[in-house]
Amino acid sequence: MTDEPQKETSPDRKLDELEQRLNAIEAKKRKSSEKDHAEAGASAGYQALGELIGGIFVGLGLGWLSDTYLGTKPWGMIVGVLIGLAGSVYLIAKSANKSTSDSDESKKD
User: Fold this and answer.
1) Residue 48 within a domain
2) Residue 69 lies in a domain
3) CB neighbours (10 Å) of residue 27?
4) For residue 64, is it within any domain?
5) How far is CA 4 from CA 1, 7, 13, 104, in A?
6) pLDDT digit string (tens) for 10-42?
7) Cα–Cα dist 40/30, whole Å
8) Exposure string over 68-92, b if 16+ CB within 10 A, otherwise e
9) What are phi and psi of 8, to 5 degrees?
10) Which of 8, 48, 51, 72 is 20 to 30 A off residue 90, Cα-Cα?
11) Which domain holds residue 96?
């Protein structure tokens, strides 16, 4: 026999300990979920910025080509920038609409 007293653990105490551990795990999961959501928002913002800048530069390039080879100076660049801007705004709106519909579907679950 040992001189150490036996630890008595009642079922209620075990349940309380289990509940505390579960609450700690859920709090940790919520914190990481909020961080993931913030990173997804930043990613979408960078994507929109890239689409906007890319569309403008593509339009500028096509306008420059038009001005150089077709002799439409300066109208090729002006029209190219406007078409590039319109195309990039369309792509940004399309991406935003898709991400909004995806988040609406995840809220329904």
Assistant:
1) no
2) yes
3) 9
4) yes
5) 9, 9, 20, 59
6) 788 888 998 999 998 888 888 777 777 788 888
7) 15
8) eeeeeeeebbebbbebbeebbeebb
9) -100, 120
10) 72
11) 55-100
CB 48 within 8 A of CB 80: no
Per residue in 75-91, pLDDT (tens digit) is: 999 999 999 999 999 99
Residues 6+ apart with CB under 8 A from 91: 51, 55
Nearest CA-CA partner of 91 in 43, 50, 33: 50
Question: Cβ distance 55 to 93 under 8 Å?
Answer: no
Identify the pLDDT of residue 31: 79
Q: How far apart are CA 5 and CA 75, in angstroms?
A: 93
Examine residue 93 and state whether it is found in any structural domain, yes or no. Answer: yes
The structural domain count of the chain equals: 1
